[in-house]
Amino acid sequence: MKEIVIKTDRLSKRFGDFIAVNEISFEVQKGEIFGFLGANGAGKTTAMRMLCGLSIPSSGTAEIAGFEVYKQAEQIKRNIGYMSQKFSLYEDLTVSENISFFAGIYGLTNREIKEKGEALVEQLGLEKETKKLVGSLPLGWKQKLSFSVAVLHEPKIVFLDEPTGGVDPVTRRQFWDLIYEASAKGITIFVTTHYMDEAEYCDRISIMVDGRIAALDSPSKLKTQFKAGTMDEVFYQLARGAKRGD
Amino acid sequence: MRTIRFLLQKEFRQIFRNRAILLLIGVMPVMQLLILPLAANYEVKNINLSVVDHDHSGYAQKLVAKVTASGYFKLRGYGASFKEELKKIESDEADLILEIPEGFERNLIREDQQQLFIAVNAINGVKANLGGAYLTSIIKNFNEEIRIELLPPGRFNPGPVIEIIASNWYNPLMEYRFYMVPGILAILVTMIGGFLSALNIVKEKEFGTIEQINVTPIKKHHFILGKLIPFWVLGNIVFSLGLLVAWLIYGIIPIGSLLVLYGFLAVYLLAILGFGLLISTFCDTQQQAMFIMFFFMMVFILMGGLFTSIDSMPDWAKLVSRFNPVSYLIEVMRMVILKGSGWRDIWPQFGIITLFAVVLNAYAVINYKKTN
After folding, report:
1. Where would I find the ABC transporter domain in this sequence (chain A) (predicted)?
2. Are residues A89 and B212, on separate chains, in Cβ contact within 8 Å?
């Protein structure tokens, strides 16, 4: 029996008449790499923001790390890491200042901040850049740093919203190495992406179409189910039916 | 507490890395205090005067000499045609016309009576008003002088005269800078505090960093305090710089206790920073925040009693100014600096400003939503 860390039941979010997320139900197990796919405007980010406690659901329930989203949003925040679509470390702080700031507000002790910070810098090969402003780093480095900061406090789950958008293939590969490492430590990864090769790296993926989950399984099973050779084809088959998008 | 320490560390690092902010808090107040009090001066000099002289007599010349010697007036024209001189008013070369009628001297001596005519360009109200008043009083003075001259010494028996001796308390020489400098400093502190705090949270919204904060278990009041404290410190620095300039340049030393002054300022800054933070919780972009703050600042400044006295405002405006925190600071600054008021004198203002601080900050904390 595997431990379930994310569990949603008919979770919805409405903005006026618009139903951004329409009754999605799924479960994610501990340590899993869960891919969250969908065309632009399918409702991925909205769904993720609800799971992170950034947005209150309109209806349905969700339990994250054993806490429910309506009343225990703050406890959830203690147990998750989040990396948004928009780069959101402080560009006018240096690498090490960002690390110690975020580690500090998650309540890490000074010794932990020092040790983990050094380990992080070493892992990313940023030893020479610690005193540089984050704003001056190339995008790929920023994204890797951003991920490492998001898992520095060893959350149970980390939510990644299109973490590799605009990043070159080599850096993307390195980024996924970081993800695997975190996953091996038992951190559950919840990741949205538009790259189908990245979808293949996931243990299981869900594909959202018009606010609903249209398919959910492991990449190989989905390919069999949709009689497709690649994840690309699976995605096209599902996304072609979408009524909204950009 | 530890969280706040990390927040403060971050805020101060960002502030000290931002050259624009450093200039804003260091150079702006000093520059403004050097320039503004000299410019914002109600004392009207250089009133442009045109004289239409139909008489060309000795007395007429004496009068004109007396008027120009007063230092308030500049003789812009001296002619014999009212029409000509009126053109100067039309083209804004002259503010006032003094018309001396024909037979001025003759009538004055023979009939003991003469009329003078003053035409005032009332477009610039202050200049016109004061100019007219100065001119009238100079002419009155002139009148006294020639009365003595004209009457034979023996018959000179002055009637009962009430002489008024005025004494200006708290600002004996009626120096405008004593009146203006504390007020301008009050406004400077308000502007810098208000704008910096209003823009700060919105900037985090624009850059997206607020999302990263909102997803942490940080407490709302910690976050707001982390924003409030750095700007509170900056506000105190700006204020101290201002007092220093007031002392070094204008020789203004607060008569009252500095403790009272800083005590009031401490709470006032909390109020104005809370107001800025409140605005920033309502806005999504720095532009929005800027414009909204600008709107309030205009009202605060124009209705704060710096340029126009609140006592002479209509009742509805007096009511509005009661909701204007700036008016309390200006009032208290003048009371403490010029009059030497103590705690007992300023406690009503202190109470009200405390109320402002509590309400505005509570509202800002409530309105700052980590979850939407």
Report:
1. 6-235
2. yes
Domain boundaries, chain B: 16-40+174-367, 47-155
Residue B85 pLDDT grade (very low, low, confident, very high; cuts 50, 70, 90):
confident
Q: Answer yes or no: is pLDDT of B370 > 60.
A: yes
| Strands, E assignment, A39-129 | 59-64, 67-68, 80-83
Question: Do B284 and B341 touch, CB atoms closer than 8 A?
Answer: no
ipTM of the prediction:
0.87
pLDDT at residue B25 tops 80: yes
The mean per-residue pLDDT over the stretch B275-292 comes to: 94
- Tell me, what's the pLDDT at A226? 87
Per the CB < 8 A criterion, the answer to whether B228 and B361 are in contact is yes
Q: Are B14 and B207 in contact (CB under 8 A)?
A: no
pLDDT of residue A38: 87
Nearest to B239 by CA among B257, B266, B271: B266
What residues of chain A, 62 to 101, have a C-beta less than 8 Å from chain B? 73-75, 77-78, 80, 82, 84, 86-93, 97, 100-101
The model's pLDDT over A220-229, given as tens digits with 9 standing for 90+, comes to: 898 898 888 8
pLDDT tier at A120 (50, 70, 90 boundaries)? very high
* Residue scoring higher pLDDT (B35 or B263): B263
A45 CA: distance to closest CA in chain B (Å): 13
Q: Are A74 and B217 an interchain contact pair (Cβ–Cβ within 8 Å)?
A: yes
Q: Which of A105, A110, A152 to mutate to test the interface with B (most CBs of B within 10 A)?
A: A105
Looking at residue B313, the DSSP 8-state letter turns out to be S
Share the mean pLDDT of chain B: 86
How close is the nearest chain B Cα to the Cα of A190, in Å?
Answer: 15
- CATH 2.40.128.590 is held by the domain B47-155: no
Q: How far is Cα A48 from Cα A74, in angstroms, rounded to an integer?
A: 16
Token pair belonging to B280: 């920033």
Amino acid at B200: N
- In this structure, of B211-215, B290-294, B368-372, the range with the lowest mean pLDDT score is B368-372
CATH superfamily placement of domain A41-50+62-217: P-loop containing nucleotide triphosphate hydrolases (3.40.50.300)
> What is the bridge-based pairing of β-strands B73-79 and A18-29?
unpaired
Angle, CA of B141, B146 and B150, to the nearest 5°? 155
Report the pLDDT averaged over residues B275-304. Answer: 93
Residue B47 pLDDT exceeds 60: yes
Of B52, B57, B150, nearest to B104 (Cα)? B57
Q: Which residues of A touch B1 (CB under 8 A)?
A: none
Task: Name the packing angle between helices B2-17 and B220-250 (round to 10°).
Answer: 50
Distance from C-alpha of B203 to C-alpha of B195, rounded to nearest angstrom: 12
Give percent of chain A with pLDDT exceeding 70.
98
Query: Cβ contact (<8 Å) for B13 and A97?
Result: yes
Q: Where are the domains of chain A?
A: 41-50+62-217
Please give the biggest Cα pair distance in chain B.
Answer: 98
**Partner residue opposite A54 with nearest CB, options B14, B218, B371:** B371
Q: Which amino acid is at A117?
A: G
Judge residue B63's burial from the number of C-beta atoms within 10 Å of its C-beta, 0-12 exposed, 13-18 middle, 19 or more buried: buried
